[in-house]
Fold these 3 entries.
Entry 1:
Amino acid sequence: MRRITSKDTKPEIVVRRFLFRLGYRFRLHRSDLPGRPDIVFVGRRKAIFVHGCFWHQHSGCREGRIPGSRKDYWIPKLERNKQRDREHAVSLRRLGWDVLVIWECETEKLHRLEPRLVKFLGPQERSVK
Ligand SMILES: [Zn+2]
């Protein structure tokens, strides 16, 4: 069973390592920010969430599909997650933060993420070998 609240989910670690390799430095889980973003770039005022496709309902994604059984249980539960995600993103933006969501399924093809990450974050602090 996948856990919703685990701090160091695998996709998140994958993204973190990748960002580090690209030359970015960041903080983790700033609990003083709405939604406790997974990866935080304080100086840049940018926050990244790495979302599990199921729990956060990645639309159009296979992993985001709601199980056939117990739909009356899952739909409201997952809708609440989605609603919370939206509220967190709105609150962060109001505080002047830029927000990027990376989906779990996207972390399987990291090279495809690179241009998006660089575009979102801007140039790296250090040169990358
Ligand atoms: Zn997905």
Entry 2:
Amino acid sequence: VSSLKGVVEAQCPNGCKPFEAQVWSLVRLDHNPELREQLMAGELNLLSCRTCRRHFYFDHTVVVHDPRIELLAFVFPAYYKDEAKKWSEKMRQDYEILERRGGEAIDYPPVMFFGLEELRVQLEKEDDVQDEVEIARHLSKSLKLELYAVKPSVAREREIPSVLPCASNGGDMRSRLLAGLEQLLHENAYLRHYKDCLGQLQSAKDKAVPPPAKE
Ligand SMILES: [Zn+2]
């Protein structure tokens, strides 16, 4: 399934004559990188009134999917937020339908947003983490550290980078990750998300490491 667009009758907030417009209901960021750009620029599903030229968002539910980063976002209109519980139930049902329809295996939970702006903020945050990942990749090479890829949906949930440095030897994976993170932060103490990750790993009661990404 690629991205999907539908024809709707749009009503300008100024009360002008309704007009037909095309809006996205399913956005595949992996197939349509240009839609990610539109989303980040606040232009996705932004309409311009045919009569008064006012710009406004067409408020409806959009599913934004990117299997590469295990993102399945249900973006409800912002004003649905008052009934978050009801919509979370609806999301769960739709997710089950998606799962049953098969095609692609989805082994990560859907995430709920209210308004495309909320999703934009989240993706911006992930871009910031990604900047740290690029620095860490670079430093890991000179520090002769290996890289450990975390399951992306888990990295998102825990707000940690999806690529972690790990010492090439020194016991179990947890010890190797702890050593890798300590070496990395010794080189660059400003990698905030790696610092958080080290803290999480040190204080994890079950001594578990984040699950690895699929090969
Ligand atoms: Zn208008």
Entry 3:
Amino acid sequence: MPSLRAAQARSRLQPVDLDLKHHRPYQWIRRGVLTLSVATTVGLPLWHLQVLSRQSAGLAGFGSAAGAFDATTAPPFLGMPGAISIFGLEFVDPLALLGVLLARGPSWALLWAGLPALVLVLVLGRFFCGWLCPYLPILAASNVARWVLARAGLRPPDAAVPRVTSRLILVGVLAGSAVLGVQLLPLIYPPSILGREAFRLVFFGSLSLGTLVVGGAFLFDTFVSRAGFCRSLCPGGAMFSLLSAASVVRVVREPEQCTDCTVCDVVCNLGQRPMTDQLDSGCERCGKCVAACPTDALKLALVFPTARPGPRR
Ligand code: SF4
Ligand code: SF4
């Protein structure tokens, strides 16, 4: 009765209780990429401000008109992780790309900018959520808060919100952008919100309603449903899940080595069930289940559609 045992264990164990002991290089690389992503979100506005300050002080390439921004001395990195320009080359995440195309009409330049990320998602699946999203540290804080509450005897609920909700939100946001001609993603998509809030805070010293949305997501994750925003509400998660249906990078279980200990099911933030091979395109390839498995029964591998096993009951 693996599903019953898993349900019992999930009600006791928390992800914070588990060590990620195995396959550490993968986890170190993932954490390094995530740290870079968060540093980019926070650091780019500060860098831009510093460049502008130097220009306006006449210390570097200041243009003819006092106070004007000199594009020739602009920082080589502009934007935020979901939409960034590096030495003039632009990269846009597929959801932001679609939102802008629907709001403003077709653009070859934008399509080219979105192509690298689109190819990566098609191959690597929903990796953006597990490797790059700047909301992840907030989600980790929510998991710690849930652990503290559970230790204090106040076990927070883990409501199962239908995952179709995030797809409905995705359709609503994209349809709204198309009808209104305005990009609506920055109202609900955490990577966009956090990037904009960082710029607003650095340049204007204030925050907008976006902070309330992110704060609401944290409260929802903490007091209503573990990682519920990423699992069931985020339009980005819905979009990446849809795009990653054909990804060949999968978590694979070696049945002979599996002891049905439930650790992998517990550690997964996104409600996947590696122990019973019940994984779908919602897997973010974070590799935490692989790292937590005490018997090394799990691995991330290339699996082509013809070789995919069905779920174990
Ligand atoms: S795959 Fe590993 S972590 Fe998951 S139930 Fe089996 S032994 Fe435990
Ligand atoms: S199944 Fe494993 S790799 Fe996929 S999201 Fe869950 S913990 Fe991460």
